[in-house]
Amino acid sequence: MIIQIETAAVDLALQQLSQRLTHMEPVMTDIGEHVASLVDLTFTDAADPYGSPWLPLKKPRKDGSSKPLNDTGRLKGSITSNASALEAIIGTNVAYGKYHQLGLGSPQRAFLPTQEGGLPESWEREVLDIIHRYLVT
Fold first, then answer.
1. HSE (CB half, 13 Å, CA atoms) of 44?
2. Single pTM value for the model
3. Are 75 and 94 in contact (CB under 8 A)?
4. Residue 83 in contact with residue 14, Cβ under 8 Å?
5. Considering Cα of 67, then 68, then 70, then 72, what sign does the dihedral take?
6. H or E, element range at 17
7. pLDDT score of 123
8. Contact at 8 Å (CB) between 47 and 113?
9. Burial of 41 by CB count in 10 Å (0-12 exposed, 13-18 middle, 19+ buried)?
10. Given this model, what pLDDT does residue 1 score?
11. Secondary structure of 108-133 in the HEC alphabet?
12. Which residues of the chain have pLDDT under 50?
């Protein structure tokens, strides 16, 4: 499953930065790590990246907890970021993640931004802040 998200503002800022830097991998690494931390918050908040709460569990777990996608912590702990000079990639290697992200056979509990929704506004501002820090140094 690949979700590619581009925004005009981020693309423009990265283009400006690439004219000043010869090595873009550090900025992409910072962006990827930061967005991965924002994805991590979706599990804490039990809401998609746009703030819509996930559907609740049908019944609490045996231990009494009721937060969706927080049973073993495996999916949350699998969120990683990888970067190159051209892109930052955030995702999971847990096979069942796509079922929750896309709502395939289970209630949709998106933890990554969607292609349709794009990068959430607040996330975009934070990514732009990272890029701007590189522009002013």
1. 6
2. 0.92
3. yes
4. no
5. positive
6. helix 8-18
7. 98
8. no
9. exposed
10. 64
11. CCCCCCCCCCCCCHHHHHHHHHHHHH
12. none
